[in-house]
Amino acid sequence: MPKTLAEMLGSPMLAVATGLGGVMGLLSFNALFCIYLERKISAWIQRRMGPMEVGFHGMLQTVADMVKLLGKQLITPKGIDKPLYHLAPLVVFAPVVAGTSLMAFSGSFALHHIDLGLVLVFTFGGFAVLGIFMAGWGSNNKYALLGAMRSVAQNISYEIPLLLSALSVVMLTTSMGRTVTVGDETVAVQGLNLFHITMVQMDRNVWFIVLQPVAAILFFIAVLAETNRAPFDIPEAESELVAGFHTEYSGMRFALFFFGEYSNMLIGCMVATTLFFGGWSGPLLPGPVWFFLKSYALMAVMMWVRWTYPRLRFDQLMRFCWMVMIPLSIVNLLVTAFFLKVF
Amino acid sequence: MAYLGRILHGFKTLLTGLRITGRESMRKPVTLTYPHVEPKLTGAYRSAIKLIRFEEMDSHDCVACLACEQICPSFCIKIDGGKIEGIKKKRATLFEMDFALCSLCGLCIDVCPTDTLEYSRLYDEAGYDRDWNMDLLEEFRDFEPTFIEQQREREEKEAAAKAAKKAAAAKAKAEADAKKAAEAEKAGGDAPKSGDAPKSGEAPKSGDAPKSGEGSAS
User: Fold this and answer.
1) B79 or A178: which carries more pLDDT confidence?
2) Minimal Cα–Cα distance from A323 to chain B, Å?
3) Which of A191, A198, A213, B83 has the most CB atoms at less than 10 Å from its CB?
4) Percent of chain A's residues with pLDDT above 70
5) A170: three-class secondary structure by DSSP
6) Is the same domain home to B136 and B189?
């Protein structure tokens, strides 16, 4: 069983401080790295070179951008709903930190070890919608409000296939083995425990993407929609809505939204890694390395997707969700349940 | 079934899209890292005019005829110059072009009698004033006194060669005349036509020899 940070350090307060620091460090690095990666991947796809000037092959470009954002004036528009406007970036960013700390990135070490980890991750994921809507409503700007409304409609719709496809994996986990033997101890499997999901995959020597390919694809598409990534980036469609919900935000407030988006991507990819790609399992390299390798490979695919497809129209987006994603995920769930019951 | 078929078809087209972008991302970028590398200009590239540096005189050959100044539809060329003391050749002492006005029509290049104008290969010039005067003589200015000195020498040599040629021609003519006179004396005024023929054949021969010798020496 993974040891939690509190057990290792012996003091909950110390564990909170260290864990928070670690997660913030990881997310900051992730945002900087992902922006760089995104620019590079978009450049390669369009046969450009991307940032090349700042640092070796432009590696310090995002650091320079961050310094620029830190130095920017924070513009507060007139007529805003002050508490909502000021709270929104935090509401977007804080759940992300909490969500990241639940991840099962190693078999021997965890920040938290909760049996309902998967549920909690999705709960925190749902907060992002709230933050985005607060930003859109509080900004007193029609574009921001339109973007926020689109975001809410989209996120709530796509949460259904997201949860349903995750649910089929949970069903699979619980019925594939009541217990898992790790080392010399036997663990009773909880289907919603992220660590247990990985352990079952390791125990059976199979990644769930092999058993649940449809669920994996649906999950990935739903994650794209949940994180407002292209081709589902309608909430911030810059050709129609200026910048969507963060139109009125500048400087570090805007940067927090950006942080939130990239962190949400990371969480989505980490959850997908856990559910479908065997989590930290892998030969030779230590667990966390495999975990992050897989996560960032998925991240690269997300960027690849973004720079390949054009943005959907809103009705296309909703039709795709309600006519394709949700029926397919329900059918997938029923088929999974049927097979689990019969065999 | 049609429903599932459409989904499958859509999925297939999505994968096709990913394959295309994936393939493109593996290819070499076409970016020109501009300040670090020089762009490849086409042969017909036109930029501000410049004066050609001729090898045999190591300078331009603008004789300040003002043909380009007069033909320029944008009135962007300003030339001053003329006779220089010490040499026969006319020279430009001022050749300015306002590149802000120039439309790169190339009439000046066509009209130049000494063919000393051509398009330059400048591609990243910038003007910082409303009138953007380019001094076309700038690169030649330091060399101009030396050029005048050399030109004087060249002209002197040329004059000497000419004089030598003239002298040789005169000499040949004198010789021919003498011969003719002698022949006439011998023949006693008979057959003046046959006496003319060797004269006209000899004269250019004797005139050629010193001329070509001078040419190779200079």
Assistant:
1) B79
2) 9
3) A198
4) 98
5) helix
6) no
Identify residue B23 by its one-letter amino acid code. Answer: R
Show which of B123, B141, B159 is a domain's final residue.
B141
Query: pTM, whole model, 2 decimals?
Result: 0.73
Q: Is A305 on the interface with B (CB under 8 A)?
A: yes
| Helix ranges restricted to H, A60-102 | 61-71, 82-100
Same structural domain for residues B101 and B166?
A: no
Asked if residue B37 belongs to a domain, the reply is no
Judged by a CB distance cut-off of 8 A, whether residue A54 touches chain B is no
Q: Taking CB atoms and an 8 Å cutoff, what residues of chain A touch B21? A: 45, 304, 307-308
Contacts of B23 in chain A (CB under 8 A): none
Which residue of B31, B32, B33, B37 is the best one to mutate when testing the A interface, meaning the one whose CB has the most A CBs within 10 A? Answer: B31
The minimum CA-CA distance between B76 and chain A, rounded to whole Å, is 39
pLDDT tens figures, A97-127: 888 888 888 777 777 778 888 888 888 888 8
Cross-chain CB nearest to A308 (options B21, B27, B28): B21
Structure ipTM over 0.85, yes or no: no
Rounded CA-CA distance A202/A278 in Å is 7
Same domain, B134 and B193: no
C-alpha B52/C-alpha B115 separation (Å) is 8
Nearest by CB to B22, from A43, A304, A309: name it.
Answer: A304
Q: In 10 A of CB B218, how many CB atoms? A: 11
A151: closest CA among A123, A124, A131, A122? Answer: A131
Number of domains in chain B: 2
Q: What is the pLDDT of residue A97?
A: 87
CA–CA separation, A181 vs A272, rounded Å? 23
A43 vs B29: CB contact, 8 Å cut-off? yes
- When the pLDDT of each residue in chain B is averaged and rounded to a whole number, the result is 80
Instruction: Let me know whether B156 and B106 are in one domain.
Output: no
How far apart CA B200 and CA B204 sit, in angstroms, is: 7
Residue B7's pLDDT is: 86
pLDDT mean over B78-85: 84
CB–CB contact B7 A44 (8 Å):
no
Closest by Cβ to A52, choosing from B18, B27, B33: B33
**What per-residue confidence (pLDDT) applies to A65?**
85
The stretch B152-178 carries a mean pLDDT of 87
Report the residue count for chain B: 218
A47 vs B20, B29, B33: nearest CB: B29
Q: Is position B24 within any domain?
A: no
Please check whether residue B37 touches A, CB under 8 A.
no
- What is the rounded CA–CA span in Å between residue B214 and residue A223? 90
The H-assigned helical ranges of B112-191 are 138-141, 144-187
Q: Which residue of B has its CA nearest to A51?
A: B33
Q: Which structural domain, as residue segments, surrounds residue B210?
A: 147-217
Do B65 and B133 belong to one domain? Answer: yes
Q: What is the pLDDT of residue B16?
A: 92
